[in-house]
Amino acid sequence: MIYLTRKAEFSAAHYYHNPDWSPEENQRVFGKCANLNGHGHNYTLEVTVAGEVDAVTGFVIDLKLLKDILNREVLDDFDHRHLNKEVPEFATQIPTTENLAVAIWQRLESKLHPARLHRVRLYELPDLFVDYYGE
Amino acid sequence: MKVYLTRRYLFMSSHRLHNPSLTDTANREVYGKCNNPHGHGHNYFLEVTVSGSPAVETGMVCDLGALDTAVKSEILERFDHQNLNELPEFDRIVPTTENLAIRVQEILSRVPLPTHLEGIRVEETANNSFEYAGALEPRH
């Protein structure tokens, strides 16, 4: 088993707002992230796939193919977008970094054959990141 | 659903690697320049990893402010701008970054955190880092 990680960056806007709560409760829980005018981040995404090295190509997965999949499934929809307003997953859930990592996993999981998705790591900032293993 | 969240912190401390049960010559052989009697220091980066299922109402694994408060009061205030050799945590053990990582994990596992502690990682320099997760294997 060998693990391969590809890194990508995207920049997006979001805000945190739970429509079931009062403005005061949203402000108390989410602080400055509750500003409905939104704010943004430069996210760094690391996608790790696992698999066996192909005897003919020496690849776990074709890197160009992996890049194309990341672009098509994630970056084209997320980069330079407003996550709350333009990404369907976040019409009903709050676009926290936790929920973003899970949504990215769900978009990629079935697309990486013959490799297997091992980990999605998403940095919101250099000092804050989340990992999701599909558990 | 289990999502891991990692937060990175910084503290600056001095230390000297010296085992009083070894001879001065042996200490110099084992610890090299880290045995300098006057000590030296590092910028330690600490990564604390917690886990949980994001709450439906917030989308969050935990309250980051509460995690920051706990790490600041229990770890950063204890170790930042201190000489590790002078602290009670290291009165009987050498303050290598291995032992520092174990102490940090032990301290954090004893205090209330807003969600489950998975493990910690300490970077002594950009080239050396140490991971400890108590009884668990660190994740990769």
CATH architecture of chain B: 2-Layer Sandwich
Count of distinct strands of chain B:
5
- Using the CA coordinates, give the radius of gyration of chain A: 17 Å
Number of strands of chain A: 5
The figure for the number of domains of chain A is 1
Helical percentage of chain A: 25-40%
Order of helices and strands of chain A: EHEHEHHEE
Describe the global form of chain A: elongated
Largest interface: A-B, 26 and 21 residues
Number of helices of chain A: 4
What general outline of chain B do the C-alpha atoms trace? elongated
**What are the segments of chain A in which pLDDT stays under 50 over at least 5 consecutive residues?**
none
CATH homologous superfamily heading of chain A: 6-pyruvoyl tetrahydropterin synthase/QueD
**CATH architecture assignment name of chain A:** 2-Layer Sandwich
In the CATH hierarchy, the third-tier topology of chain A is known as Tetrahydropterin Synthase, Chain A
Count of helices of chain B?
A: 3
* Derived structural class of chain B: alpha+beta
Largest sheet of chain A: 5 strands, mixed
Order of helices and strands of chain B: EHEHEHEE
Average pLDDT level of chain A: 95
What is the structure about, briefly put?
The complex is a heterodimer of chains A (135) and B (140). By secondary structure, chain A is of the alpha+beta class. Chain A has helices at residues 23-30, 63-78, 83-86, 97-108, and strands at 2-14, 39-51, 81-82, 116-125, 128-132.
Describe this structure in words.
The complex is a heterodimer of chains A (135) and B (140). Chain A has one domain (2-132): Tetrahydropterin Synthase, Chain A (2-Layer Sandwich), CATH 3.30.479.10. In chain A, 30% of the residues lie in helices and 32% in strands. Chain A is built from four helices and five strands, in the order βαβαβααββ. In chain A, strands 3-1-2-4-5 form a five-stranded mixed beta sheet. In chain A, strand 4 and strand 5 (128-132) form a beta hairpin. Chain A is elongated and about 60 Å long. Chain B is an alpha+beta fold and 140 residues long. Chain B is 27% helix and 29% strand. Chain B has three helices and five strands, in the order E-H-E-H-E-H-E-E. A five-stranded mixed beta sheet of chain B has the order 3-1-2-4-5. Strand 5 of chain A pairs antiparallel with strand 1 (3-15) of chain B.
